[in-house]
Design a protein that fits this description.
Blueprint (H helix, E strand, L loop, with lengths): L2 E4 L2 E4 L14 E3 L1 H5 L10 E4 L5 E4 L2 E2 L5 H12 L5 E2 H9 L7 H16 L12 E4 L2 E4 L7 H17 L3 H12 L13 H27 L7 H10 L4 H13 L3 H19 L5 H11 L81 H12 L14 E5 L6 H12 L7 E5 L10 H13 L9 H12 L5 E5 L4 H4 L10 E6 L10 E4 L5 H12 L1 H6 L1 H10 L4 H12 L6 H7 L5 H4 L1 E2 L2 E2 H11 L5 H7 L11 H8 L3 H13 L4 E4 L2 E3 L2 H10 L45
Parallel strand pairs: 10-13, 10-14, 11-12, 12-13
Antiparallel strand pairs: 1-2, 2-3, 4-5, 5-6, 7-9, 8-9, 15-16, 17-18
Helix pairs in contact: 2-4, 5-6, 6-7, 7-9, 8-9, 9-10, 9-11, 10-11, 12-13, 14-15, 17-19, 17-20, 19-21, 25-26
Length: 733
């Protein structure tokens, strides 16, 4: 197979390029010129491939990476892209639930052997510079561009920017270049639980990029050329609505409306059988356009080809939170992306005589939304001004933040509240999901462009600069009454440009962070559902008769889900699609040590949701949470003194760290100086608990496995900690 080269990276010709030992490797052309010939650390002369078989080179020389498990360790470090990997996590990822007795010792041996290949001695006796140890974890320090995965991410991000700047041909070229880096299977030849999880994640990223490239192909008039590729992908992924919608669009544009209707019917039956839901608005609009003799939902996109086409997470019926990961829109923004009507909104904003279009982008409401009465009443009052803090018309646009931990139901509550108050905002409702499918943040400039097109029409120009877009956006809303919903916001700085300024508007934000620094915002923090709320929701989700038939099992089910709506949604989906199953049989599966693993169905998984959010924590906070989350004093909580003992820091610093974790919804605090962790988060902490790369005596074990009486003297060190009575050597649960 021929090769193509580019400066600063490697490229393989063809989207299916392989990197096996029997073929020529992907080439890093211009590596030394682009990066400099830095022999101090050696990191800048290394390069790796992960998107096929794992391979590594230093300059032109391919490196010997050792045994399968040693290569698995290297791959697990590379996919973290510089983030530290706890030793316990690596052991579990390589060996699973039953590691060998000397697993940590074997891991240290693999690290030593890899360092011999990857490190270059600096002559000064310094420590490792490439494969480093920090706080009981290992990390690989290489430039992102030294790994094909990093180049893939770079090109996909550049394609996002090109689409935002309305350069669709450039975006498509970048995506083709990114996809050409892939072999037949990422991490080929490697195994273990961690590799399987990463392989699934990486394949999801490739599929999302491929869907976006296909959407650009269709929008740029190449629908006939990609029909075969779309058919094959839709058959391989029959539950991905975005692919089915793209295939329908391509069929319609090719004059094959009957084939498009067949795709719609097949997808409708599959979704009904698997999840009890109908296809999203995009597919319904295309089907309606065909049956009415037009092309509704297909041709009226208005310049959409140049806009970003992030995959959207489509809401399933939920206990106030969970989402089934089903891409709901086939086209580009204006037809469904991270913003706008991506989850069931109308086909487009209604033009009105005054020139302001009235978008209605709020995702569909949830038929089985239950509970949260107090929070819902508070949101309604704050958004509509019924709280009476200031007279109507004199108040600035209210900004309301709904915060809470992963899976607690923030998005579902926000959507439900938005539907309840939409009558107070007759000029429209705007919606944006600020979390991209790959977990990154959607840029405010992209959201502003989509909002402006929704408000002004797709045929009117949008300024290039974000500051100009923000000024125009606020001008459009100055005299309007519009509700703006910003979902999954990670950084308060990112939303400043998106907040409306008109006194008749309001903004509703959801985030895991409490955003205490967002001036003038009003806050609603969500905790777990009470047992009564959880049982009420179960009655709605699986039927009151079923709950009445097994009341004790349902109580235990609610308790073992910890009142977390995401967990409840998962078990309810399983029970709803298996009506002959007894509730007690599901409860039995949740009694074992793998409760988090059992709480998963289709693309929903509690452990994965926690893991993704954990990866977004600042690196310095991750080891803090992993240790303190397992602290429990006799009352089930813990205080700053116990944390100080666990971390070996002064009590004041321990309190500050705990408060930061509270602000990020990883800890809860009912009163000053007392903290606790949700039970499922505690189980997650067990999976990432750091034991350190070297052996320790019992008195030096991380304090998270021990009890500490609040009030103990931190100066006594870890010897003042005691193991709770009746526990063994393992981690406390």
């Amino acid at each position: 197979m021929g090769e193509t080269c580019c400066s600063g990276g490697f490229r393989a010709a063809g989207a299916g390029a392989s990197a096996g030992h029997g073929t020529a490797p992907r080439v890093f052309a211009g590596t030394y010129e682009a990066w400099g010939h830095d022999m101090t650390t050696g990191a800048k002369t290394l390069r790796f491939t992960l998107l096929g078989p794992l391979r590594a080179w230093r300059g032109p020389q391919e490196l010997e990476l050792g045994s399968r498990q040693q290569r698995t360790l290297l791959a697990l470090l590379l996919v973290r892209q510089g983030r530290p990997a706890p030793v316990d996590s690596l052991v579990a990822d390589i060996w699973g639930d039953r590691p060998p007795a000397r697993a940590v010792g074997s891991l240290r041996t693999y690290v030593s052997r890899l360092r011999k290949e990857l490190e270059i001695p600096d002559g000064a006796g310094g420590g490792p510079r490439v494969l480093v140890s920090e706080h009981g974890a290992y990390a690989l320090r290489v430039p992102a561009e030294a790994v094909d995965l990093g180049l893939f991410g770079r090109d996909v991000a550049a394609a996002d920017l090109a689409r935002a700047a309305r350069r669709p041909e450039e975006a498509r070229t970048l995506l083709r270049t990114a996809l050409a880096l892939w072999g037949d299977e990422p991490l080929a030849g490697l195994g273990g639980p961690g590799v399987e999880a990463e392989r699934s994640r990486l394949e999801g990223q490739r599929l999302a990029a491929l869907e976006t490239r296909l959407a650009l192909d269709v929008e740029l008039g190449e629908h006939i050329a990609v029909l075969g590729e779309l058919r094959a992908l839709a058959e391989r992924h029959p539950l991905r609505e975005r692919l089915s919608s793209l295939l329908m669009r391509a069929y319609v544009l090719s004059g094959q409306g009957g084939e498009a209707l067949a795709v719609h019917e097949r997808t409708r039956r599959l979704l009904a059988a698997e999840f009890g839901i109908d296809p999203g608005h995009e597919m319904a609009a295309i089907a309606e356009g065909i049956t009415s003799g037009g092309t509704a939902g297909v041709t009226g996109s208005g310049g959409a080809a140049g806009e970003p086409a992030h995959e959207v997470l489509r809401d399933a019926p939920t206990a106030g939170t969970a989402r089934i990961v089903l891409p709901a829109r086939a086209g580009l923004p204006g037809q469904g992306g991270p913003v706008g009507q991506g989850r069931g909104g109308p086909a487009g904003p209604e033009p009105v005589p005054d020139g302001l279009r009235r978008p209605a982008q709020i995702p569909r409401d949830l038929a089985d939304f239950t509970g949260r009465d107090e929070a819902l009443a508070q949101l309604t009052d704050e958004l509509t001004g019924a709280s009476g803090r200031e007279p109507a018309g004199a108040r600035p646009a209210p900004v309301v933040v709904v915060s809470g931990s992963t899976g607690v139901g923030k998005s579902a509550l926000a959507v439900h509240a938005a539907h309840r108050v939409r009558g107070h905002f007759p000029d429209g409702q705007l919606y944006a999901d600020l979390r991209a499918p790959d977990g990154g943040a959607v840029h405010p400039a992209v959201v502003l462009e989509s909002f402006l097109r929704a408000l002004r029409g797709s045929d009117r120009p949008v300024p290039e600069r974000q500051t100009d877009r923000a000024a125009l956006y606020r001008s459009e809303l100055a005299e309007a009454r519009v509700l703006v919903v910003l979902d999954n916001v990670a950084d308060p700085a990112a939303v400043d440009a998106l907040l409306p300024g008109g006194p008749g508007c309001a903004a509703l934000i959801t985030s895991t962070a409490r955003f205490s620094g967002l001036a003038g915002a009003r806050h609603t923090h969500l905790g777990a559902l009470s047992r009564a709320e959880a049982l009420s929701w179960l009655s709605t989700a699986i039927g009151a008769e079923r709950v009445a038939a097994e009341p004790e099992a349902c109580v235990e089910l609610a308790d073992r889900c910890g009142g977390l709506p995401l967990a409840l949604r998962i078990v309810a989906m399983r029970l709803a699609t298996r009506p002959s199953w007894a509730v007690a049989s599901v409860v039995a599966a949740l009694r074992g040590p793998q409760r988090l693993t059992a709480l998963g169905i289709a693309d929903l998984c509690v452990h994965e949701a926690f893991r993704r959010e954990y990866g977004r924590l600042p690196a310095a906070l991750r080891p803090v949470f992993a240790r303190v989350a397992l602290l429990r004093e006799p009352d089930g909580q813990f205080g700053p003194t116990a944390v100080a003992l666990a971390l070996g820091v002064p009590s004041g610093e321990a309190r500050a760290l705990c408060e930061e974790l509270v602000d990020r919804s990883w800890l809860e605090s009912a009163r000053p100086g007392r903290y606790h962790v949700h039970g499922l988060l505690r189980e997650f902490a067990v999976s990432v608990q750091r034991d350190g790369p070297g052996p320790r005596s019992d008195g030096e074990r991380p304090a998270a496995v021990l009890f500490a009486p609040d009030g103990a003297d931190p100066s006594l060190g870890s010897r003042s900690l005691r193991r709770p009575r009746g526990t063994g050597e393992g981690l406390a649960s």
